[in-house]
């Protein structure tokens, strides 16, 4: 019983990280039908800067917000110089290569600058484990899925109740019509990328105390976050969170009952089967196109 509970709690924690990365893809895609394919590296940037800040004796209350702000700026720059010039029309795909290339460069620079270290980010949330039905879990692990759900709900309120959120929804629905109504489409797109990057940086700060922070940590997490977004439907924020949590739990059960080596094989096999059954995503809807 304790092992069963342990797998569920640990799975919800890592699944919430996939959900947060997936939400970032959802925010970017909704804004301009393009994404930062190196979005996982934003998670790495946030975590590494937070660790470096702690090493420099910068208080956590200053270091963590600074790391997230750097990620926001990074996201805005990615949109301006790696996405916008290569996304002139709906069929352009140059932004795929440019974002991947910049992600590789950022990862390489971080390795050169800070070294290929692997260490945990200090946090009071991992000082003492909590026992739940015989399973041991840190407070940090319980906080991450709660944060993912709360952010999803806050994002829904933001989209519906604020002027900026409504502008983002208008751009997502029809960029041309939104521009004709006086909305600065480029500015809204940049804000969307900044918001997604800030969320990715926050995910890095949250997961840093649980897993080892390294300059290569974002690659696989980013890929799984993208897989979660595609399986759920990249336009459904609620679907992304639900799918991410379930995917994380599935991974932990595979690790526990089969092996760690089988985790990726089974996980990505499930992704392929889901997309074969639901080409639009589990929570997606078929889009009617007028010709």
Summarize the structure.
The protein is an all-alpha fold. The protein contains eleven helices and two strands. Helix content is 72%, strand content 2%.
Class, according to the CATH hierarchy? Mainly Alpha
What is the helix/strand order? Answer: HHHHEEHHHHHHH
Biggest sheet layout: 2 strands, antiparallel
CATH A-level architecture: Orthogonal Bundle
Q: How many distinct folded domains?
A: 1
Helix/strand/pairing category: mainly alpha
- Total DSSP helices: 11
Helix residue percentage = over 70%
The proportion of residues in beta strands is: under 5%
Keywords: Amino-acid transport, Cell membrane, Membrane, Transmembrane, Transmembrane helix, Transport
Main location: membrane
Subcellular location: Cell membrane
Membrane topology: Multi-pass membrane protein
């Amino acid at each position: 019983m304790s092992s069963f509970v342990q797998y569920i709690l640990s799975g919800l924690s890592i699944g919430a990280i996939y959900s947060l990365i997936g939400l970032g893809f959802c925010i970017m895609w909704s804004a301009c039908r393009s994404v930062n394919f190196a979005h996982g590296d934003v998670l790495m940037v946030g975590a590494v800067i937070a660790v470096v800040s702690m090493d420099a004796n910068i208080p956590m209350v200053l270091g963590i917000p600074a790391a997230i702000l750097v990620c926001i700026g990074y996201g805005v720059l990615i949109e301006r110089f790696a996405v916008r010039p290569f996304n002139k029309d709906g069929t352009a795909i140059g932004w795929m290569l440019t974002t991947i290339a910049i992600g590789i460069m950022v990862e390489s620079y971080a390795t050169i600058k800070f070294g290929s270290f692997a260490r945990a980010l200090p946090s009071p949330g991992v000082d003492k484990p909590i026992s739940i039905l015989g399973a041991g879990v840190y407070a940090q692990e319980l906080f991450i899925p709660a944060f993912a759900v709360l952010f999803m709900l806050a994002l829904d309120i933001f989209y519906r109740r604020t002027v900026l959120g409504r502008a983002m929804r208008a751009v997502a629905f029809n960029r041309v019509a939104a521009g004709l109504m006086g909305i600065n489409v480029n500015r809204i797109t940049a804000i969307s990328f900044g918001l997604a990057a800030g969320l990715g940086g926050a995910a890095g700060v949250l997961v840093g105390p649980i897993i080892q922070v390294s300059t290569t940590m974002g690659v696989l997490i980013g890929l799984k976050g993208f897989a979660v977004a595609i399986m759920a439907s990249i336009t459904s924020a609620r679907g992304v969170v639900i799918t991410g949590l379930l995917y994380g739990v599935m991974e932990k059960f595979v690790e526990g009952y089969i092996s760690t080596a089988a985790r990726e094989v089974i996980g990505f096999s499930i992704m392929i089967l889901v997309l074969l059954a639901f080409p639009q995503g589990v929570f997606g809807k078929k889009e009617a196109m007028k010709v």
